[in-house]
Every structure is written in C-alpha cells, then in structure tokens.
Amino acid sequence: MKSNLTTLGPKADKDTVRRSNLSLVLRAVRDEGDREATRAGVAARVGLTRAAVSSLVEQLLDSGFLTESGKTFSGQAGRPGTALKVARTGPAGLGVEVNIDYVSVCVVDLAGTGRVRLTEHLDNRGAPPAEVLARAAGIAARTLDSAAEQELFPVGVALALPGLVSGGAVRQAPNLGWNQVPAEELFAASLAALRPGRPELPVSSENEANLAALAELWFGGLDEVRSFLYLTGEIGVGGALVIDGELLRGAHGFAGEIGHVVVDADGPECRCGSRGCLEQYAGQSALLRAAGVEETGRGSGVAELERRSRAGDERAVAAVAEAGRMLGRVLSGAVNLLDPDAVVLGGIYRGLMPWLSGPADEELTGRVVSGLWSRSCGRLRASSVAGDAARGAAALVMQDVLADPAAYAAKAAG
Amino acid sequence: MKSNLTTLGPKADKDTVRRSNLSLVLRAVRDEGDREATRAGVAARVGLTRAAVSSLVEQLLDSGFLTESGKTFSGQAGRPGTALKVARTGPAGLGVEVNIDYVSVCVVDLAGTGRVRLTEHLDNRGAPPAEVLARAAGIAARTLDSAAEQELFPVGVALALPGLVSGGAVRQAPNLGWNQVPAEELFAASLAALRPGRPELPVSSENEANLAALAELWFGGLDEVRSFLYLTGEIGVGGALVIDGELLRGAHGFAGEIGHVVVDADGPECRCGSRGCLEQYAGQSALLRAAGVEETGRGSGVAELERRSRAGDERAVAAVAEAGRMLGRVLSGAVNLLDPDAVVLGGIYRGLMPWLSGPADEELTGRVVSGLWSRSCGRLRASSVAGDAARGAAALVMQDVLADPAAYAAKAAG
C-alpha cells in the first residue's frame, strides 16, 4: 500500500496552480509541434477554460516562451484564432557529451530541436581528466557563442559521461581510465574561467547511455514504445532502461550496466574486474579482433568491418553473427526479467544490424519465456539518428524549463 | 519530456476531492498501526485543517472503516482527543494462492493483518485446471465462512497463480502443465455455485511471485529498501521486481522471470523450451538431485536437504553452494542492470541461506560493476515470513478499498 500522502486541491495555493498551468499550456503548445496550436485547441486539450488559457498564453507570450502568428481557422464556431508556437529564441539547453574519442556539444531550443552542434574528435584516453573537461568546456564556450548569435541562451548544462556517474562525479569509467573524477566541478570551473563576468550556468551530469536512451524516447519516433532496453556498442557496451517513459536510474544511479552481465563465468578478464562480461564478446575491440580488422584510426575499424560484411567476407560476417548471438543471449535474460516493449541497439550496432539482428533475434526467440518474441516481431530495432547523448543531455535541461517556465522567465531574455 | 497533461485544483470537483481526502485520512490512521492516532495528529500529517479532518473522520466512523476508543493526551494544548483505529471488522480482502502442491487462502483486514488462513496441501499437477480451481474455490468458500464469523466481509478476491499470468488467465505454467487457462472465470463460476444467492465477488489475478514480493514490501520490515529483486525457490524459480515501491509488471505483465535467465547456453533443456536456464541449476529438483536427496513426499526433500546441510554432509553442502554460485552469477547481471537496494530470497532458499548466501555473495561481489556489493553488505537477505503470496493477494484487494473507501461504504456492513 502506497503510503505517500498527497493532497488534492485544498493545499495547492494559487501561485502553485498558476505555475503548474503555465507549464501545462507551454507543453501543450510544444507537443503540437508543427501543427497549428490555438488558444481554443489548447483549452480543450488541457481541460481549462478558454479564459484561463488566454491569460496563461499572454504571460507566456510576454516572457518570450511563445510566439504567435497569422490567423487560423479551426473549422469550429467563433472568431479565428492565431497560431501559437514555442519560441525559437530565448531559453535553451546545453548538452555536452564527453566520450572516449570525441566531445560533442549540442544546443536545443524549447521545441527540443537541435540548433547548434559542435563535435571534436580527439583521444580522451591519454589526457588527465581535468584537461579533458577543460577542453570540453572550451568547445562548450564556442557553442554558446554560436547559440547567442541565434539568440538562444542556455539556462543550464548537462554533461553526458561514460561509466558510473553519480553525485556529480564519474565514479569509474574503465575505458577512459577515470576514477572518482569530480566532473561537474572541473567542467564548471573551466567554463566559468572562459566566460568572465557572465552568470555561471548550473551543471548537472548523467551517464551517456541514459541520455542517449532519453533522446531516443523523446525524438526517436518510437511511437507506442514506452518501455525499452537501450544498448549502445562502443569501446564499451553501454545500456539504459526506460520503463513507462521514465529512465530507471537504480538505487545508486548505476542501473543499465548490461555490458557487464556475464556471458561465460570463466571467460576472458574484463576491465571491470569480473570475467566473461558481454563487453568481452560484443564490445568494439572484441568484435574487430574476431573479424581480423585492425583499428587504424578513429572509427576506421568499424567502417572497415561494415564494408567487409557488406562484401560478404566470411570472417567478418561470422564475427558479427557471433556478437549478435551473445547479445541475444544476454538480452533474452533481460527481456525475461523486464518484459519491455522493445530493445533498441545503438552505437556501432546500428550499422551492423543486417548481420547482427538475425542471430540475436534467433537467441531471443528461443529463450524468451513468454513466447512473445519472434524473428519478425520487430521488437529488436536499430536506434534512430536522434538518439544521441548530447541532444538527450540538452533536452534534459529543457525539462526543467518546461516544468516551471515561470522560474526561467527572467532568464529568457538572456 | 513527459507530456502527460495533468491539471491541479481547478478541474477536481468537490466530490472527487472529498473522496480522495477520505482515503488520505483512512491511510493516515492505518499507517499509525498500533500507535494512537488522533484527529489533530492526522490533520498535521495530511496537511488538512482540523475541522476538515473531523468531518472526514465522522464519515469514516459512520461507515464502519474507523473505530474510536478512550481518551488520549497528545501533550499538546487543547482538549484530549480520542484514539482512532481502523476497524477490525467490515471490508476485507481475500487472497487465494494456487500453487504446484498446495492451495492457501488468506483474509486480511483494513490494517493488512492476516485474520483467517486455510492451507491445503495437495498435488495440483495431476488434475485438470478446472478441477484445481474448483477445489480452490471450495477452500475459499470455507475461509469466507470463517471470516463472516469474525464479521469480516471480503469485497474482492485476488488469485496468486504460478507462471505467466495476464488478462485473467494463466498463459503458461510449465510446472503445473497449464496452458491458456482462464483462471479467473473458472474460479469465479465455482465460487458463485458454492454461494447461491450471495453477491458475486470480483476476481482478479496476478503472478504469485509478484504478490509475494508485494507482501514482502508491505509487511516484511524492509525499512528503507524500496527497490529489490525478489526470488523464490520452488519447483520453479520465480521472481519479481519492485522498483521505488512499485511492482514492475512489464509491457505484457511477464516481467520478473529470472528463473529463465540463461546460465549456460548449452546447458540442460528447460521446460520453457530454452536451454541452461537458472531453474536447471538452482530450482528445487536440480538442487535435490545434485545433493542426492530423494523427494518422498511434499516438502520432505527440502527438509532433508536442510537437515543434511546442517549436519555437514559434504554432498549436500556442495550442492547448495553450487546453486548459490549460479544464483549469484545470474543475480550479478540483474544487479548490474537494475541497481536495486537489495535482493530478497524466499521459498526453499530461506532455510538454505546459511550455506547458500556465502557463495552467492562471492559471485555478486566479484561481478557487480558498481563495486557496491560486498560479502558483508547485507544486501542479500532472506525473505520474511510475511512475504507470502496469499497475503499479498489479499492486501492487493484492500488497496482498492484504501484508495477509495467511499466506493465500498455500502459493502462494509457485509
């Protein structure tokens, strides 16, 4: 029995109700996307009176969250309304993905659209964490300059980081060689030093696979899929769980580590300290090694593997198929545990799907106990291009704005 | 971005608010348990005025949900209040667990206390499903008679069933040999035939491990543990996931099937159609076979295994340790995926914990990537006696009553 005590109505004071309703109206307009939103349409959707919605819309127009344009004819009685849209300028979110061999920074607007993107490929394994984060801050500062030219003013930064992320720090990221790195603090200090005299932006952080999964959920066109497992093949194998449209973070923020589920208890040693983890069978290095492909520069190995698979190279196809079987085996356990709508594969798996998905689906079909998995069920799918961690991070910042626009009204002007 | 549109205040009409507040006050009194609840204390806790709470309490007293007795001195100013308690008579919940070798029926009152229990040991594998459910209905009918003598009147029945349960049916329960059995319908018809002229009780159903996990959550004294994996060793290995105090049912209602996570892809065939499932290593039959213990009658094998383990019988201890290692291996993957607060072991594992938990903890310690598992962390624990499926089922029925007592006011008199 849930014993959380919540009260309806009587205790919610007027200001709280109005702020909540501002958010409701702003999100209703945002959800219409490119369709025309009118005051009457919004009122019908959110269940408030037309008069109440008009007053809320005025406030959102005044503070720069909404714009209106032209006349629209709804086909209903009454005078024509004007079309409402969320503003393309004003408050924005900044997402910064720091990964093994690149930093990618993204600015999204209120609609969630990516408006500025700056990616630099560099090897982050060689440098001390503080230096990597200072570089990332430099890239972020340049991105902020571009955003300002478009009159977009981020109200916060979210960092997308590999490994175990909690309390503002990277607890452990074996593939970067990071241990107990206070990432938020280091990044914030570097960014502040680059922007003297400007207000400091609040910095948050989250595991990169979690943020990529959120981006997939929000922008990936998943339609009815509300619960899914997200796997991303990189140098490590990252994972995230979305359950009923919400990220499952776990009791300590460490959920989703599917790369370290055991495939073979006596298998090869893993950097995490265990043996026979999925990463040792389906991670990028294992896959390239099995296929006999040498990594000569960033991304070149995976491109070569795709090329050889397409050309029907036996060793390449066999290596990808074996990785698919191992993925399928571990995924069958995860599906038996969680019963999700779908499994989404991102990272290097996206391009390898033609050779990977058959063997993976075969394992799943044979091992999912509900009988609700078949080779043609379409539940194993490639991630969309939208599912990237930097955009997810930027959009996460915007969630706070959408949840309480009044708190950000002053900042909307930049 | 969550786009569920919810409105605060303005749309909630007075009746809805009052019904919600009745629930709030009833749950607040229930949560006080054996401590004294007063109108003033409840008002402070739920954040309503003393006058509002008094009016709600009167209604709950009138309709038999609350009783009051004696004077209590709160130590605060004002006249002494009277002590409020939830009624020990009136609306109740009926839970019926149908398992491989027993049927257990339980009645709980508003406080969640088990008040009547009737268990019959019988082998349900031999009989057709309709016959098993008719027997269960007979046991339920006798339990209802006992409940009526205590002036407890169940307002609904929840069935706790093994296997894959959804839409009122058992889709598949390999260990019972059931396939597509419309359990709710069969049970309801049998119960109605046994109680001619009495109003029919609504029947719901749920997987038994799910209900045992809920009972563990509600009555197991888990304190701060809000997210846990629940495993129950029986003839099958059942499982359930509780995340933030809520059961995770999955997209089709089939989550928690940890018994069918792969341990060894080429291992022995499992009844589910796959190979090398956990059940083949840590289920009751595998465990008894490995220990060289013969099953001579219901429960005798497990009792003998416990006896031999306690006596230091090498083969028994080794078999339990090996099962513990396999459990630990699969659990490490589940912990890496879900990052729960704890893992709770029930069923036959409860009694075997002294020989099981060490080897399981060792695997977990070596394989949980967060580093947040150690042999002495206390996160692997035995279930409490409270964690039984029949009580969970009965308490689930009561959730509906607690959520909207007004809807059950007429029935409270029986």
UniProtKB/TrEMBL annotation, chains A, B:
One Pfam family named in its UniProt record: ROK
User: What is the organism of origin for this protein?
Assistant: Streptomyces sp. 900116325
Q: This chain belongs to which protein, by name? A: ROK family protein
Q: Which PANTHER family match?
A: BIFUNCTIONAL UDP-N-ACETYLGLUCOSAMINE 2-EPIMERASE_N-ACETYLMANNOSAMINE KINASE, ROK (REPRESSOR, ORF, KINASE) FAMILY
Q: Which family does it belong to?
A: Belongs to the ROK (NagC/XylR) family.
Taking the record's annotation, the residue ranges forming a coiled coil are none
